[in-house]
């Protein structure tokens, strides 16, 4: 009888690693939700790659809802991580910590306009006369004319920068592509 009471005491003292599997499930769901709200739009909206209309619609819808949804999902993820931490072994704690790092990164990035980092406006455009230009004759351009002044912007440059602030005939313009 004494041996069975000792075994019961040992069972009570041992951490219960699998006592709450639903906590792991909810932790994963919250983490994946947070990560998806950042990475799906970031993957779909990429320069110089095909972007299907339905995919862009999805990306913009996720991006619009990302600040609130990533906050809620990240808080839930941290709550479940805290609940799981006590019973987790070293490797699971490492996994939880790495997941929380990725969740935090995703929640922060969902609040930033990282597309501005990719598409820098051209600060000061330099213009040459057509006779001095070294553009290939087949180079596509965007052309703007106000009165007697005209400007030509190479598509190859505009495709990278997307935005150029300029002034033509005293009128400030923003050229986009």
Give structural notes:
With 177 residues, the protein is α+β, with helices and mostly antiparallel strands. It folds into 2 domains: 2-115; 130-176, no CATH class. It is 56% helix and 14% strand. It contains 6 helices and 4 strands. It has helices spanning 2-13, 21-44, 53-85, 90-109, 115-118, 155-161; strands at 141-146, 149-154, 163-168, 171-176. Strands 1-2 form a two-stranded antiparallel ribbon. Strands 3-4 form a two-stranded antiparallel ribbon. The chain is rod-shaped, with a radius of gyration of 28 Å. The N and C termini lie far apart (83 Å). 13% of the residues are buried.
Topology overview:
Layout: H1 2-13, H2 21-44, H3 53-85, H4 90-109, H5 115-118, E1 141-146, E2 149-154, H6 155-161, E3 163-168, E4 171-176
Antiparallel strand pairs: 1-2, 3-4
Keywords:
single chain, 177 residues, alpha+beta, 2 domains, two-stranded antiparallel sheet, 6 helices, rod-shaped
What share of residues is helical? 55-70%
Cα shape: rod-shaped
User: Unreliable stretches, pLDDT < 50, 5 or more residues?
Assistant: none
What integer value in Å does the Rg equal?
A: 28 Å
Write down the domain tally. Answer: 2
Instruction: Let me know the largest β-sheet.
Output: 2 strands, antiparallel
Q: Strands across the major sheet, in which order?
A: 1-2
Tally the helices: 6
SS-based structural class? Answer: alpha+beta
Content of β-strand: 5-15%
| Quaternary form | single chain
